Prior knowledge:
- The chain has a 3-stranded antiparallel beta sheet with strand order 1-3-2.
- It has helices at about 5-25, 35-40, 45-60, 75-100, 105, 110-115, 125-145, 145-165, 175-190, 195-235, and strands at about 30-35, 60-65, 70.
- It has 2 domains: about 5-75, Winged helix-like DNA-binding domain superfamily/Winged helix DNA-binding domain (Arc Repressor Mutant, subunit A, Orthogonal Bundle), CATH 1.10.10; about 75-220, Four Helix Bundle (Hemerythrin (Met), subunit A) (Up-down Bundle).
- The chain contains 10 helices and 3 strands.
- Helix 1 crosses helix 3 (about 45-60).
- The chain is mainly alpha-helical.
Amino acid sequence: MTSAARTTNIAERIYQQLKLDIFDFQLLPGDRFSESEIARRMSASRTPVREALYRLERDGYVQVHFRSGWQVRPFDFQYFEDLYDVRILLEAEAVRRLCEDKDREGRLAGLMTIWCCRPEQRSHDSSEVAFLDEEFHFGLLECGQNQEMAAIHRSVCERLRIIRRLDFTQKGRIEATYKEHSEILDDICHGRRDKVVNHLKKHIEISKNTVREITLHRIQEARKRYAEDKNMDMPPKVT
């Protein structure tokens, strides 16, 4: 393996680990750090660390301050609200087009197998359902047969993933998602254009509100845990 290939592999490993740390709130919104700190932690040189960090910056997870190093991007819920608005516009247009497609049932057959199944056939694993949910919404755009819309939609959903993945940790959300997805598919198959757009918007709004509440709670809990850990490391006060 060449030196360049090794650096690329190490950068990919660091990228994936840092993204996971951000998703799991091991690195909190607003946390600052240097390339040297990450290099020591990852047992790597600064070159692949810098490559991973610039990739995370392009993805919108971190930002660089040229005099004070790097920072996990502070949570800006208006930013996520804007992304959700774009997502709703794209998905609403996709389902409208599907309602007019004569072969819509054939295009949706794979999604219907997953979401219109009997209750005993459903997955109850939150990570798996989170993945399937994302694939459901990707599938709607892909069935709409506009590759540029689908590419934009994937980019938007990638930036939303940091909060969307928390949706299925909430009790009842898995069952509700199966019900909502099957209703959306049934509306499309019967060409109910206005009804499916309303169903879709409501479905996304519920998810958005749920993850906002969970995200705020998770950040508060992580900050509390961090403060407790920091206090435990301090020497006892002399009285």
